[in-house]
Specification:
Blueprint lengths: L1 H18 L16 H20 L16 H20 L8 H4 L3 H21 L2 H4 L2 E4 L2 E4 H25 L18
Helix pairs in contact: 2-5, 2-7, 3-5, 3-7
């Protein structure tokens, strides 16, 4: 009698979570070797980063929790620079090396630069075919598939979104991923 009651107590909350509508990954394209889940992940990090940059008031763009780390604005610039770095590798192009982190300081400049960087990466994701995704490039001295370089870009961006969450929480701003109505597939 105790075991069925215990199982019910453990499984009931899980059924509520599973019953909620989950985001649907984008449909796979013919001959596409980038998984729908990877595309969903890219859309998630892109939208959460853009939303974070938009939510943070301009006066906090120079905020840094301690002198040894980047400011919020520098972090946004770093992510934009990194998008060009990763996606230029995946596209087989020379990195534009815009040095956004060191040349842009205002909220408007940094948001515009981040949008441009994501548009550049959109091109990398959208143009990837089964053939190009499996081509290898030198990345950090190691041969990687181009599709794996794009996955590394997502991982890098997620890492820095974690930093931005701390910055936002320290300024009493709710990060986008914890907003009750945040939809990772669309930008609010």
């Amino acid at each position: 009698m105790l075991l069925p009651a215990l199982l019910f107590c453990l499984l009931a909350p899980l059924s509520v979570v599973l019953a909620q509508e989950q985001p649907k990954p984008p449909a796979a394209k013919p001959n596409d070797s980038i998984s729908p889940f990877t595309r969903l992940g890219y859309g998630y990090v892109k939208n959460t980063l853009l939303r974070s940059a938009e939510k943070m008031p301009e006066e906090f763009y120079s905020f840094r929790p301690t002198w040894i780390v980047r400011s919020f604005g520098q972090m946004i610039g770093h992510v934009a620079d990194a998008e060009y770095f990763f996606c230029s590798k995946a596209l087989g192009e020379k990195n534009p090396a815009l040095n956004i982190q060191k040349t842009k300081t205002s909220k408007a400049e940094l948001i515009a630069a981040l949008k441009d960087a994501f548009a550049y990466c959109d091109r990398a994701f959208d143009s990837m075919t089964e053939v190009t995704a499996n081509q290898t490039v030198k990345f950090q001295g190691v041969d990687f598939r181009k599709a794996d370089v794009l996955t590394a870009s997502i991982m890098h961006t997620v890492e820095h979104y974690g930093n931005l969450i701390v910055y936002m929480r320290m300024k009493n701003i709710v990060p986008p991923s914890t907003e009750p109505d945040f939809n990772p597939q669309t930008k609010k």
